[in-house]
Specification:
The chain has four helices and eight strands; from the N terminus they run ααββββββαββα. It is an alpha+beta fold. The strands form two sheets. Strands 1-2-5-6-8-7 form a six-stranded antiparallel beta sheet. Strand 3 and strand 4 form a beta hairpin.
């Protein structure tokens, strides 16, 4: 059975999604992040799956044969924390995160509590590095 990618770009409204975020502070942060990601990438915000706001896209194919599409960068205002999605494998990320502010990291995510905790210039650099890395890694996207 072929693997079905769960997170696909949808036509759902980004604004509608943000308006349904329970916390007023997270809603406000989500709008700030949309502005920063849009301005930094030059791409419009699109919904990916039910809860990820993504910017741009690329097509990946692994040696295993698994392939699919994913946003170049994105975020999700989740209940506990805001998840920021950058390129997995991007080598400059760790260095940049040293000056990022209060955050935790997962495999491909960086988690923040609120936008006020982080350095905006570092966020923009993380976004730029991620986009450049993915466009260089997957040039035919």
């Amino acid at each position: 059975m072929a693997y079905q990618q769960k997170t696909k770009e949808t036509d759902h409204s980004v604004v509608e999604f943000i308006e349904n975020v329970e916390s007023p502070k997270k809603r406000e942060d989500a709008y700030k992040l949309v502005d920063i990601f849009t301005e930094t990438t030059g791409y419009d915000a699109k919904m990916w799956g039910p809860s990820i706001i993504g910017f741009g896209s690329y097509h990946y194919k692994y040696e295993s044969g698994h392939e699919g599409d994913a946003p170049l960068v994105g975020f999700s205002p989740r209940k506990a924390k805001i998840s920021l999605y950058f390129a997995p494998g991007e080598t400059k990320r760790e260095e940049l995160l040293k000056d990022f502010g209060k955050h935790t990291t997962g495999k491909g995510c960086v988690y923040i509590n609120k936008v006020a905790d982080i350095d905006m210039a570092v966020l923009q650099e993380l976004i730029k590095q991620s986009v450049q890395f993915l466009q260089a890694t997957y040039p035919n996207s």
